[in-house]
Automatic annotation (TrEMBL):
It comes from Alloalcanivorax balearicus MACL04. Belongs to the sodium:neurotransmitter symporter (SNF) (TC 2.A.22) family. It is a multi-pass membrane protein. This is Transporter. The chain crosses the membrane at residues 12-33, 45-65, 97-124, 150-168, 180-199, 219-245, 266-293, 313-338, 359-379, 399-421, 442-464. CDD domains: SLC6sbd_Tyt1-Like. Keywords: Membrane, Symport, Transmembrane, Transmembrane helix, Transport. Signal peptide: none annotated. It is found in: Membrane. SUPFAM superfamilies: SNF-like. Its main location: membrane.
Amino acid sequence: MKQGDKPVHGMWTSRWAFILAATGSAVGLGNIWKFPYFAGEYGGGAFVLVYLLCIALVGVPIMVAEVMLGRKGGMSPVHTMIKLAAESKVSRRWAGIGYMGALAGFLILSFYSVIAGWTLYYIWDMAQGGFQGISAAGSLAHFEGMQANAWLMLGCHTAFMILTMWVVARGVSRGLEKAVQVLMPLLFVLLIGLVVYASTTPGFAQGVNFMFHTDFSKLSGKAVMAALGQAFFTLSLGMGAIMVYGAYMPREVKDRRTGQTRRVSIVSTVGIIALLDTLVALGAGLVIFPVVFSNGLEPSQGPGLLFVTLPLAFGQMPAGVIVGTVFFVLVMCSALSSSISLGEPMVAWLVERGLGRPLAALVVGLTAWVIGIGTVLSFNYWKDVTFLVGTFFQNIDFLASSLMLPLGGMLIAIFAGWVMKETQARKELAMKSFGLYMIWRAVVRIVAPLAVAAVFLNALIGALGG
Ligand code: TRP
């Protein structure tokens, strides 16, 4: 099939554009906010090691499967799955992967925008010098003050959602690709600068030691589960985001230098994305933990690590206004390139059903925005309104991240490994090494479904057991 066969959405103009976009999707709040706080909470080195193993052994093979299905189908996850199910002569119900994924993306987008909205406020606040010389209590009060202000949070949520949908509305090559071409390199430059800065702080050695010294006595079953779940979230797996990005991936590209066409290898491309994602997570840790130790703070702060502890550190360090502002710009950019991928499966589906892209983006953005209001209120007026696993926000997060993503990832692995014709998968992947192909196949057939089932059950038992 040539690029011209897919006129509905357009294609990435190069393999590099796909890598940037998928890396943009993968790198986000999951890397910069969640990964360090998990690493801190679960004791450092041993958790990091298990997380890295999960990325390599389960995350990468499932990502390969997702890109492969997407490129084979060439459409939104719903239509891709309908098409592939028909080709494999199995029930149309496999399209459920696409529907569930679109819904999960919707739900995640609704609260992702709210949390990302906090970074907008923090950029502004930080740039004003709002954290200069602040105390621990003061920083916490800052964070809580923001949460208590529903109008402020709603405003930030609204601004972030508009930003996201504006990019999505502009389309694949003019919107998404343009945005990530600016955002991703910027992000890497900023992060490298901050790691260099962190290496000059007195706590650097301690921070590095905390992240890489593996003490297995600290590793619990729960930590292993958290590491696997985090591997899924951080690579954007299980809801079709990577599948729809794969659908925009050309099979062959013209080499700029030689002018010859080359096949675009899925496996090596995914390898690069996973590597970049991992480097950003580790880089974020290498900024955050040295800063934590340099300021005599605790690594096990929990979710507040990013929003309470770091501003406190920025408030104390020389040039903290600049470093802090740059850091939150970095977080905001990475969140934006992730959030555009959360809405894309749904937008692509609506576009295939005949809606114009701007209108589809408006519909998706508006709906997610409305659901997001529930999350905004979960931090103030509805703070004490709890049911099932907690506040409205916690329920949405749990439903989408802990239940729907693992389930989606598992079904994707099963479809790619058991349902789809073996020859088709092998042809689409076109892997040079047969041994590597057999390893991939074994993982998507057996290892990945079992591992995800374990996460899934754990989440369920945790919810029931309280
Ligand atoms: N991976 C992103 C992060 O780490 C979040 C994200 C974007 C995501 N798209 C996704 C998570 C799809 C799950 C599924 O912040």
